[in-house]
Each structure stands twice: as C-alpha cells, then as structure tokens.
Write a structure and sequence with these properties.
Chain A is α/β, with parallel strands linked by helices. Chain A has helices at about 10-15, 30, 60-70, 95-105, and strands at about 35-40, 45-50, 75-80, 105, 135-140, 150-155, 160-165. The N and C termini of chain A lie far apart (about 40 Å). The chains are: A alpha/beta, B mainly alpha. The complex binds zinc ion.
C-alpha cells in the first residue's frame, strides 16, 4: 500500500538525500544514476544505471536506496538495473558541477566526451579547482576512482582530480 | 544450431575475453613500473571485469539454468572458457603487456562499435556502454606503444620483440564458426572479417607512428572457438578461482 502514502515526487526527494559513497558532496540523483521511479500498490521500483561497468559503488547505491526508503516506511523496494542509455556526465547539472569544484575536483568539461582514440582527442582546458588557472596538465588518464583522471596545476603546483567527461 | 545456444556461447566469448584480460591486468596490482601506471592498470582491470560481469550474467539468464556471473567465472573448467588466446598471454614485461593490450583493445574497440547496432538489445546496450571505456583503454595502450617504440634503442627492440611474439595470436581473434553464422543471420553478431579491416588500419597507423615493423602473417594459433587454450590459462584460473574452490559458497 505504497502509493497511498507517498508520491513519486516524494520518493525522488528521499533519493536526493543519498550522497555518492565516494564523492559525498553530490547525491546519487545529481550524479544521474537514478533513471526512473515507479510506484504500484505493492512496491516501488527504482531504475538505476551504472556510471562505469566496473563501478564498485553500484552495490552500495542499491543498498543505500533500499535502506533509505525502508527508513521512510516503504517496505517493498525493487532495484532495476539498466545499461541503456549509457550513463554520461552530460546528465550532471550545473549545481552538481559547482559542488564538485568546491570540493576540489574539477568537474567534467561540457561537450568534451572522450570519443577520440589514437591521439585524436583535441586538447581540452581543465581549470584548476583551487586557483582557477587554466595552465594545467594531464598527469594520468587514471585516478583514484574509475571516474577520475589526475591533473596538476602549473600555477599553484597542486595536483587535483578531474571528473572525466564520458 | 538454435539461436539460443549460439547466443549463450557468444556472450561467454565476450564475457570471458574481458574477464581473462581483466584478471591479467589485476596481476599488475602493486607491481606497476610507476605508481600512475599501477593505478592505470588496476583501473583497466576494473572496467574489464565490469564488462565481463554484464555478459556473463546475461549468458546465465539466456541459458536459464540459474547460473550466476560468479558461477560462470569461478566454477567452470579451463576447457569451458571461450576467451581469446591473446587475452590469456602472460603479462611478461611492461612492453609485452602494452603490446598485448593494444592488439586486444583495438579488437574490442571495433567489435563494440559494430555491436552497438546488434538486434539483441542487451548486447547493443553492453557495446554502447563498453565502447566509452574501451576508447580510453585503446588510447592508453597506443600512447604507450608510441612512447616505447619511438623511445630508446632498448625500448624499441623490446616492444618489437613483444609484437613479433604476440602476432601469432591475432589470427584467433577473427575466426568464426556456426555460432557467428547463426547470429549474423539474426543481426545479433557481426562479421569479424569486417572488423579485421578496421583493426588492420588502426594497427598499421599506430605501428608506423611507433617506428615499429608490422610482423608478417605466418603461422597463427587457433583454439578460442573450441575452448582450446595455451598452457597459461589453467594457471591463471587456478589463481582466479582459488577462493571459490577452497571455500565453496563463500559470499561477500
Ligand atoms: Zn591551481
């Protein structure tokens, strides 16, 4: 008897309180992982999609969603995992991008999806999240989690994470 | 051959190649030549194992016998794996790994590009998702190949040797049998000979840029389609399956 108590909008609000387990300043809804909320008499179905195929946080997302909704009195929660359309950083809004920057992670540069192979990917400007200098260099395409690359600022010399645009 | 049986096998091929290459990359964990590369290689491993999970789960669903991704990864014997012979080649030195991955990444890249239009929704979604990751995998291995090939005399000689040694495992990537035939007819699989044309172009471009020489096509090993492997796979899966074999039913 779920839909007598809660509306779809309320459930979205509950979900938007769940922080990303690895980058706690943004929520799982801001990240774009939650794709759909469906209500029926018997249950709530939450459709989610993985950021990266091997993202180890996916299981945590599921557990957190179920736990949060249980706490709000929603007993039966079903998680539906979909792969299409494939997750993209384009789903991340300006507010989330600004939160990332304040946290010290350079947000994905809009429209710079990595499509190039073999040196074709043109140079992109990633501003330092600390001093805003655009004089930065890519140190490694890989960083502390699947979604990040490692940059260094040539002006303030600080290394920083860049949230890759995919 | 029924479409269903062909599809089960096709998904195992995709999933197993990702799984075995992912396991190889995991072996680099804490053994990378520099910290950044150690992190890079374990990130590559994570992506590959993620890709394997999707296809192994799906193969289990299509099969309908209740086998999960874990059952398929940890409870099959060597002769039940359909990974490419190239994916199981040992890591060797860093240059060997770079060359192996470069040849394999380019294969995955063009395969997934084509499979994005597969009539099987799950395979199409998997390809569209994976291509995003394989794109930067290929860029990573290509850039390293250029750095090593066009590097010092020693690095050039070493990767040329790696390329010569690994070349004979590239023929296996493009072999097809009845499984492909059945699925190509249904619009689910793609013709690997067409993928090879694209693969050849990219391989030639990067080899040239690396100042290396493309080896002549001579003897090519074969075996993937019949789950026939080199002596290396058994050792790899003994390590990979150790926990489930020693403690059956162990759960996270
Ligand atoms: Zn700075």
């Amino acid at each position: 008897m779920v839909n007598e108590k809660h509306t779809e909008k309320q459930i979205w609000e509950f979900l938007s309180e769940i922080p990303d387990p690895e980058i706690p300043v943004i929520t799982i809804t801001e990240l774009g992982v939650v794709r759909k909320v469906e209500l029926s008499n018997e249950k709530v179905i939450i459709t989610i999609t993985p950021t990266y195929t091997g993202c180890p946080a996916m299981k945590l997302f599921e557990d957190e969603i179920i736990k949060t909704l249980h706490e709000k009195g929603i007993e039966t929660v079903e998680i539906n995992l979909v792969y299409s359309p494939a997750w993209t950083t384009a789903w991340m809004g300006d507010i989330a991008r600004e939160k990332l920057r304040k946290y010290g992670i350079a947000p994905p540069v809009k429209g710079s999806e990595d499509k190039g192979i073999l040196f074709e990917s043109g140079p992109k400007v990633v501003a330092c999240p600390r001093c805003k200098s655009e004089n930065t260099i890519l140190k490694s395409q890989f960083g502390s989690t699947a979604c990040k690359a490692l940059y260094q600022c040539e002006t303030c010399l600080e290394p920083f994470d860049y949230f890759k645009c995919i | 051959m029924e479409t269903k049986d062909a599809l089960i096998n096709y998904c195992l091929r995709l999933g197993d190649s990702s799984l075995i290459l992912g396991q190889r990359m995991a072996e680099w964990c804490s053994n990378g030549p520099i910290l950044e590369e150690d992190i890079a290689m374990t990130n590559l491993s994570l992506d590959l194992i993620g890709q394997a999970r999707t296809m192994l789960s799906y193969s289990g669903v299509v099969e309908g016998k209740g086998r999960s991704e874990d059952d398929l990864a940890y409870r099959r014997e060597e002769r039940e794996f359909y990974n490419t012979l190239l994916s199981e080649r040992p890591n060797g030195h860093f240059g060997d790994t770079v060359v192996r991955n470069f040849l394999h990444d380019a294969f995955f890249y063009y395969l997934y590009q084509a499979l994005k239009s597969s009539k099987d929704e799950m395979i199409a979604a998997h390809a569209a998702k994976s291509i995003k990751e394989v794109t930067y995998h290929l860029r990573h291995s290509s850039e390293w190949l250029v750095r090593l090939g066009d590097g010092t005399v020693e690095s050039h000689e070493k990767v040329q040797e790696s390329l010569n040694d690994l070349w004979e495992y590239t023929g296996d990537l493009f072999e097809m049998n009845e499984v492909d035939e059945v699925l190509i007819k249904e619009g689910i699989a793609v013709d690997l000979q067409k993928i090879k044309l694209e693969w050849d172009k990219t391989i030639n471009t990067v080899i040239e840029r690396s100042t290396l020489t493309r080896p002549e096509d001579a003897y090519m090993h074969s075996g993937r389609l019949d789950a026939m492997h080199s002596e290396y796979l058994g050792h790899l899966i003994a390590d990979m399956q150790f926990l489930q074999r020693a403690y059956p039913e162990a759960q996270w």
